[in-house]
Design goal:
The protein is mainly alpha-helical and 147 residues long. 36% of the residues lie in helices and 9% in strands.
């Protein structure tokens, strides 16, 4: 896990809190108002000028103008950013196998704490070591502990 880049993400989000707070959602990496006016539609990140208007923690990272968080050509597939590849390269967190991915970037947070401040707080807990890989899955509120 790349703690240095997670720190940069946290600082960038804190510095741009007012810019992103209103349209923050953990529901999509990137999204925009739907054309029919009902809710949000998922969109792909293509560039800083064509990025949709809403985003989650991971979806906002490329918008922060931080060199270490910039997407590179190998992060793109089929004309849009592959967030799985991007997250693995930039943060060292793999979407499939790493419980930290769910803890930081999981879309289910939309039903539990869909706030930018909550996402920043979770980042801080991972950065500080308060939440480690082994603990992450036990802290996900959507996991049925009775099974």
């Amino acid at each position: 896990m790349n703690i240095d880049n997670l720190k940069l993400l946290k600082q960038g989000l804190e510095d741009n809190f007012n810019r992103f707070e209103k349209h923050f959602t953990m529901d999509f990496h990137r999204s925009k108002e739907s054309e029919n006016g009902y809710g949000l539609d998922a969109v792909e990140f293509k560039s800083k000028t064509d990025s949709g208007s809403h985003g989650c923690l991971l979806g906002l990272a490329p918008l922060l103008d931080i060199k270490e968080l910039e997407p590179v050509e190998s992060d793109y597939g089929y004309e849009s950013l592959d967030f799985n590849s991007y997250c693995g390269r930039v943060f060292g967190i793999e979407i499939i196998s790493d419980p930290i991915w769910d803890y930081l970037f999981g879309g289910y947070w939309v039903d539990y704490d869909n706030t930018l401040q909550g996402a920043i707080n979770r980042l801080e807990k991972v950065i500080s070591g308060e939440v480690a890989e082994g603990d992450a899955k036990t802290l996900l509120p959507w996991i049925d502990r009775e099974r």
